[in-house]
Amino acid sequence: IIGPHLRFAEKLGKFLSQIAPKRAESLNINYSGKVNEVDTTAITRAALKGFLQIAGGSEINEVNAPAFAETLGLRVSESRLSAPGDYTDMLEVSAVGEGRTVSVGGAFFGATPRIVSINNRPVEARPQGVVLVLENTDRPGMVGRIGTLLGEHGVNIATMSLSRNQAGGTALTVLNLDTAPSEELLREIHASEDIHSAQVIEL
């Protein structure tokens, strides 16, 4: 049970670090379901390693990550939910900083890991390669426009997940891409009045 969780926790930590505030004060790993049956210390360290890798570079590992977190003033904690909720096995990594909280949750579908929530919004994405996270106005034709824009720049969409808070409100669109978008494409995305934010996550 531990091996896949270690790799997945590191990916979730790395994902979170790319959407988190630059000055995070605390990092929490919440466990629910079957994973509660094992000692989660190593899994927490793997998530911390992933979270710190961009700031600390390739020298960050499971052994020195806690000490590096301390030098940054980053508090690390674990929490547990005995009831599994929607998934039999779930990890959620959250960070607090600059007055806001960001989170990413992951679950296993059989042996397959999937990102299932971003900032408590339900999504489904593969924890690998390039992930594009958009916040956009929920209106007819938006999915087609996003697809066309990426296609014009030769970027292929592997998977797409859409989560909205209410009809006509703000939608969270999460795309697994075959290649990273260029700076020019990102400028075009940011220039669209219906797209409020765009973040490229590299795993």
Description:
With 203 residues, this protein is an alpha+beta fold. The chain has two domains: 2-125, 60s Ribosomal Protein L30, Chain: A, CATH 3.30.1330; 130-202, ACT domain (Alpha-Beta Plaits, 2-Layer Sandwich), CATH 3.30.70. The chain is 29% helix and 38% strand. It has five helices and ten strands; from the N terminus they run αβααββββββαββαβ. The chain has helices spanning 2-17, 41-56, 65-71, 142-152, 183-191; strands at residues 26-33, 75-81, 89-97, 100-109, 112-118, 121-125, 130-137, 157-164, 170-177, 195-202. The strands form two sheets. The protein has a six-stranded mixed sheet, with helices on one face. Strand 4 (100-109) and strand 5 (112-118) form a beta hairpin. Helix 1 (2-17) packs parallel to helix 2 (41-56) and helix 2 crosses helix 3 (65-71). The longest helix has 16 residues, at 2-17. It is globular and about 45 Å long. The protein starts with a helix and ends with a strand.
Our count of helices gives 5
Radius of gyration of CA atoms, rounded to a whole number: 17 Å
Helix and strand composition category: alpha+beta
Q: Tell me the strand percentage band.
A: 35-45%
Main beta sheet, described? 6 strands, mixed
The end-to-end distance, rounded to whole angstroms, is 22 Å
- Give me the count of strands: 10
CATH topology of the largest domain: 60s Ribosomal Protein L30, Chain: A
CATH class of the largest domain: Alpha Beta
Give start-end ranges of low-pLDDT stretches.
Answer: none
Mean pLDDT: 95
Strand order, largest beta sheet = 2-1-3-4-5-6
Number of domains: 2
Which geometry do the CA atoms define?
Answer: globular
Architecture of the largest domain in CATH? 2-Layer Sandwich
